[in-house]
Amino acid sequence: MSVIEQFLTTVDLPRMAPVRQIFPDDAVRDVAAAVRAEFAKPGNAALVRKGMTIAIGVGSRGLADLPVLVRTTVEELLRLGARPFIVPAMGSHGGATAEGQQALLAKLGVTEASAGCPIRSSMDTVKLGSLPNGLPILMDKAAMQADGIVVINRVKPHTSFSGMIESGLAKMITIGLGKQQGAESCHAHGFGMMAENVLEMARFKLAHSPVLFGIATVENGYDRVARVELVRNERILDREPELLKEARASMPRILFRPLDVLIVDRMGKEFSGTGMDPNITGRASTPYVNTTQEVGKMAVLDLTDSSSGNATGIGLADICTRRLHDKIDLIATYANCVTSTVLAGARIPVIMENDRDAMRMAVKTCNAPDPSKLRMVRVPNTLHLEEIHVSEALLPEVEASDALEVLGPARAAEFDATGNFTVSEREAFAHG
Questions:
Q1: For 99-145, what is each residue's pLDDT tens digit?
Q2: What distance in Å separates the CA atoms of residue 301 and residue 324, rounded to the nearest whole number?
Q3: pLDDT confidence of residue 240
Q4: What's the predicted TM-score (pTM) here?
Q5: Which of 149, 268, 330, 403 has the most Cβ atoms closer than 10 angstroms to its Cβ?
């Protein structure tokens, strides 16, 4: 037994109960029909001329119904006589390579076969101009050679800065379609300037590139599309702050605060740009994002396969498992973090050999004054928060809330001989 293991032998993990968090359920029942309805609104179809080549920017985020959104947009453009193709709009993600970005789209369910059009993946850019502060404004070369550009993205709070415009259409136009060089330019002065740089670069690009419109979505607390909206070029910068306000009110959250310990089963790029959303965990890599959650110690147990080894955001955790550590692709992770200029996200936390010891280390070091009243929550990831597990000490708060429901009795977590969750324990909590 190692010295570290000896530290943990006296640590008892609390019994945890499954709890449902209840959020407003206003999901769009037929996403494809909602996209078609947007194209059918007065004047929208007239934005597309027969024979136009149109580049569709698709990003690296795990948007709800992303393949449906892409496929239906392609079908509508084809119906109007256009010749659409997809360009990855994900800045430096996918290891900052054309092949990596196309592979990342495929992991999100977007391929040439699923979309019904070609994918043209390249890291080549063209310079459109510069901001007054000297930062160059760059755009995907293939997109700029098209007659029109369309972007598809979810509007939501950003993970590293707060402002009138955060994650959404404008950021995809600015950073996503800027590829690695454009993303690096926008990040060059740090996240303290991001709100301004994203806005001003987007304003310039909207005026000096053939962006026609964006397909914006807002998701509800159940990771379902609650709004689909076609936003024309000239309305993007005015409409997006309104959609952001709606998205902020609709996003899921952990309905307990503060927490002594937070356990995140899996981090990943499909859940958040930083693997674990700071708006949920309260752990941000910059001081420029407003968060409300408070967490004593946070442990993350695994990295999704869809992340392709990109563990950006791992540094926000205090503890990780050996399993997660061994999945990290340092090149992909560093490419993302160096481009954003925020290296904290690539730091390696304390590494524990298995799930049980990672959880025990979090409890051991959380400084809770009374272990019998430990405020501990376990979540599958930071996007799917309908069902979570909470320590027994939190059950009185569940009983007192109309937005919380106990789903079963509190019990001890099940671990196998290696100290990792049993298959049944993992499968019961594997949403997302």
A1: 999 999 999 999 999 999 999 999 999 999 999 999 999 999 999 99
A2: 6
A3: 97
A4: 0.81
A5: 149
In the prediction, which pLDDT does 195 show?
86
Residue owning tokens 């928060």: 385
Using CA atoms, how far apart are residues 253 and 103, in angstroms rounded to an integer? 31
Looking only at the bridges linking them, the beta strands covering 259-267 and 376-379 are parallel
Contact status, residue 218 vs residue 155, Cβ threshold 8 Å = yes
pLDDT in the model for residue 12: 92
pLDDT of residue 432: 43
pLDDT, residue 340, reads: 84
10 Å Cβ neighbour count for 298? 22
CB 348 within 8 A of CB 322: no
Taking the C-alpha atoms of residue 54 and residue 67, their distance in angstroms, rounded to an integer, is: 18
* Among 59-63, 294-298, 326-330, the least confident range: 59-63
Gap between the Cα atoms of 220 and 21, Å rounded: 13
Q: Quick one: how far is CA 241 from the chain centroid? A: 19
- DSSP assigned state of 192: G
CA separation for the pair 338, 335 (Å, rounded): 5
Residue-averaged pLDDT of the chain: 93
**Whole-number percent of the chain with pLDDT over 90:** 79
- The neighbouring-strand residues paired with 225 are 219
Tokens of 226: 């609650």
Residue 234, SS3 per DSSP: helix
In whole angstroms, how far apart are CA 378 and each of 68, 141, 276, 319, 392? 31, 44, 13, 14, 12
Beta strands in 254-367 (DSSP E): 259-267, 295-303, 319-321, 350-352
CA distance 139 to 9: 55
Which CATH code is given to the segment(s) 31-250?
3.40.50.11440
Question: Rounded CA gap, 352 and 168, in Å?
Answer: 36
